[in-house]
Amino acid sequence: MARLRRRPRDPEGRMTLGEHFREFRRRLFVAAMAVLVCSIVAGVFYDEVFAFLSEPFYDYRRANPENDISLNFGEATSALSNLISLSIFVGVVASSPVWLYQVWAFIVPGLTRKEKRISLAFLASTVPLFLTGVALAYAILPQSLAILYGFSPEGTSNIQQVSMYFSFVTRFILVFGLGFLFPVVLVGLNVIGAMPADRLLRGWRVAVVLIFVFAAVATPTADPFTMFVFAAPLTLLYFGAWLFCRVLDKRKAATRPDWLEVDDTEASPL
Is the pLDDT of residue 91 over 70? Predict the structure, then answer.
């Protein structure tokens, strides 16, 4: 019986539509398994995860003993559902190096060898930026809680449902983590030629306004403190991405053949 011969891989990374789907399915499976394994481990250490994420809440309660506030499970199934949701959240964060790599590896076959080397720096920056955003969110969480709980009228008590509290905390942390990947997206657009550094510089005023609007909308809180703490680093990262894109553009210009250079004064009809 004749063996089916495997189609040789294109040296330039070109794949058929079917190969793209199979590659996507394989990358998605690896990422999902990484999240699943990390989620199971997080479930084993659920008590430690619960204590770590609830510590900002208890920091506020210790700093404000006059406020009657507590965490409560509202239903019989609340403890189980909270265990599952927290385990998945920790699994997503802990497995971020794996699924971020899978995203990169899915894009790599469509890149040239030089673009692959550049994209390695792209990949190397994603995990630290994501984890930096996560750490910043956790650090300012007590201040954000103090602002929100500070709106409670005098004489009232806050009976905080555990499910609602951890839903707020996980969204708060993930928004910061994903938001810090914003400069990576800009650099990626620059690598494929869709976002030159000059365009980033010309549009910095609009970009800063949009960053603050995004920070106001994306964060679960409505206080200006959280918005500013989120938007200020994103603004700095925007200019950092511009500097990196400027270096890339200079390298592209240095390696561009002379016959591709176009004189703007000759090309312009005016």
Answer: yes
Residue bearing tokens 């058929």:
16
pTM: 0.72
Q: What angle, 0 to 180 degrees and rounded to 10, lies between the N-to-C axes of helices 204-218 and 224-255?
A: 140
pLDDT tens string 14-55: 566 677 788 888 888 999 999 999 999 999 999 999 999 888
Instruction: Answer yes or no: are the C-beta atoms of 146 and 60 closer than 8 Å.
Output: yes
First to last CA, the chain: 70
> SS3 string of the chain?
CCCCCCCCCCCCCCCCHHHHHHHHHHHHHHHHHHHHHHHHHHHHCHHHHHHHHHHHHHHHHHHCCCCCEEEECCCCCHHHHHHHHHHHHHHHHHCHHHHHHHHHHHHHHHCCHHHHHHHHHHHHHHHHHHHHHHHHHHHHHHHHHHHHHCCCCCCCCEEEEHHHHHHHHHHHHHHHHHHCCHHHHHHHHHHCCCCCHHHHHHCHHHHHHHHHHHHHHHCCCCCHHHHHHHHHHHHHHHHHHHHHHHHHHHHHHHHCCHHHCCCHHHHCCC
Which pLDDT value is given to residue 1? 47
